[in-house]
Fold this sequence. Notes:
Layout: E1 5-10, H1 21-28, E2 33-39, E3 44-49, H2 56-65, H3 126-149, H4 152-156, H5 170-185, H6 187-198, H7 204-224, H8 232-254, H9 258-264, E4 270-275, E5 278-283, E6 292-295, E7 304-309, E8 312-315, H10 317-320, E9 326-328, E10 333-334, E11 339-340, E12 345-351, H11 357-370, H12 374-403, H13 408-421, H14 425-429, H15 432-444, E13 447-449, H16 452-459, E14 463-467, H17 468-472, E15 473-484, H18 489-500, H19 506-514, E16 523-529, E17 533-538, E18 541-546, H20 548-553, H21 561-570, E19 574-580, E20 583-594, H22 598-607, E21 611-615, H23 620-630, E22 634-636, H24 644-653, E23 658-662, H25 668-673, E24 676-680, H26 685-690, E25 693-695, H27 702-735, H28 740-743, H29 749-768
Helix pairs in contact: 3-5, 3-8, 5-7, 5-8, 6-7, 7-8, 7-13, 8-29, 11-15, 12-13, 13-27, 13-29, 15-27, 15-29, 16-27, 18-19, 27-29
Amino acid sequence: MKASSTVVLDVRGLHWASQQSAVATPLGRRPGVLDVEVNPVAQTATVRFDPAATSVAELRDWVIECGYHCAGQSVPSHICDPMDEPETRRAADTSAVDHAAHEGEGVSPHELMDHGGHAGHAGMSMAAMVADMRNRFLVAALFSIPIVLWSPIGSEVFGLDLPVPFGLRADVFQLLLSLPVVFYSAWIFFDGAYRALRARTLDMMVLVAVAVGAGWLYSLVVTLTGGGEVFYEAATVLTAFVLLGHWFEMRARGGANDAVRALLDLAPPKALVVRDGEPVEVPTAEVVSGDLLLVRPGAKIAVDGAVEDGDSEVDESMVTGESLPVHKGPGSAVIGATINRNGTLRVRATKVGADTALAQIVKLVQEAQNSKAPGQRLADRAAFWLVLVALAGGAATLAAWLLAGRSFSEAILFAITVVVITCPDALGLATPTAIMVGTGLGAKRGVLFKNAMALESSARIDTVVMDKTGTLTRGEPEVTDVVTDGVAAEELLGMVAAVERESEHPLAEAIVRYATDVPALKAERFENVPGHGAIAHVDGHRVVVGNRRLLEREGIDLGALAGRRDELAAGGRTAVLVAVDGTAAAVIAIADAPRETSVAAVRALHDLGVEVVMLTGDNTATAERIAGQLGIDTIIAEVLPGDKAAKIAELQRAGRKVAMVGDGVNDAPALAQADLGVAIGAGTDVAIETADVVLMRSDPLDVPTALRIGRGTLRKMRQNLGWAIGYNTLALPIAAGVFEPAFGLVLRPEIAALSMSGSSLIVAVNALALKRLRLPSGTS
């Protein structure tokens, strides 16, 4: 069994960024749990654990014990069972499996049902949490207005002298109006603070609960002991402003998870499975490996499989980002969630549930979004101490003002303001929101970052090393030049293609592909000459196709074509010679042709100020030909597979930050050696496993796309961290009243709450602005 497994758990009910420690800390203490990374923006947690010591079921129970909702793994619930253990295969008999997500029709895959019924926002989707936050704010705002009107602010600021209804004292009337605010609107603060303290940690909920609770309880004591100066308005308006700020902030950060939600919704909830010769509609989660699926035109393919019968064009853009439909016939592999465009296909299921490409992509994106950049790890630790500083600072502020001779009511207002203004929520949101937007932006283009470190590393790259074959080039031979002497090109190609159709050589296949538009002729008396070429009779002519040695054997002189043959060979091309009826007639040059977007990719990398290096085992002439076509800066040719990693290390020793782009098994050591390993998606599993970034489309243009996303994300992370740290640094002395004696500069708790929530909103909106990042295109 594996030493460790990794799951992305569904964890809902996290209102504030700083609340993540209320899950991470107690979960990290459990036996078998090796590492926990909680993402309050995505409402998920990545947990690495020892499968011999614990399981998904136990992890789910432990999250629920923390007071939060957990339905198991955060997976597309209509194609996977959330309670499946990772790395396991679904058994053929699924009747005993409890597919919790299918208990209600029409449930969105990212809105799993509430299994726990816990307090607060447990079991709610992000949209429902936003609506609940809005409702709590509206109640707080509705009751805060009359409280303010009958408070000292109403009489001293607005000049109002309103009679108190029912003959009550003003403070008693304010107390009654404050009850719905404290016991409904603000209850999530007290509930969250209780969970944090029970987990032996401190978070923003503790600060808000202390601030609201202290103000309200002080006023309650004054009211119950005969009346006096109270500030119910501070407690209720503080509650309203905190809820208002976080209502807007949650709406903003909810948009950060659009990419994963879109991925979760891609796979169809139902599939047509052929049973006893008849198609039967079953839930996608119940499809097992080996089932035969009927996929009609316009329908989505439910799971990964292989075509057994039929021909069609399949739109794979939603999974791979490839814009053009791909032809599929018998033997072709198909990906779940892609759309069958025209013909009817019969597909044998090969991968189902969590093994499908879509489920693996979702998991990869979620793990990347939940991973922490080094700056965020530091910020998370700082957030805990900031809460402690806020509480200690509030107590110190209270004591300082009392010693300065101020009244208790004035001193406690300053103390509450300090506690509120120091809330570290913006610090906790600073990088997770940017990382989520960045990884989501990449996923839409088929660029999959494996973790936050990959995002950061991609921002610092100044040299990109690209493997030639299969990365910059197609990896298959293609006709580049046809030079004829005395024969029309179309007529000659028809005769050569007739000969080459009888051959199985890769060069022959390239010529046949090139000659698809010329009339087809039939070859007779075909003779294969191993290592040399082939001879046949076509349309009454004896045609010889092969290398120079074959023509020498046949006693045919190249004549005027000899110079062109040498010229093409010197340029790194393979020269195929053609003779008709004993006379040299043509030279056909064949080479591994560049991909359509390779030139645009190199240009886009140069626009980023990145040097492009081509690394290849081919000869120098071939390398120079490709480099000249693409505008590549540096060539490292004739490199043995085992030496690629050493070449990367040489560049690193020269002070370069190197990204290696490759697709083969022999590229894996170099991918691991590089500062950033980028695997072309069509490459081998070994290369993809070793890399930090996977390009699903096998498009070199996605390399500058990845670097641009990395730079944009890092820029947003730095801006957000700078804002969050700078805000707290400047706001704390103002809140404590340091400038009050000299300048009369004072912040009331309500204003502090509004500015604190505004700070979190600014961080979230700034991260979302990353969605407008301009990415390279083939026409750029």
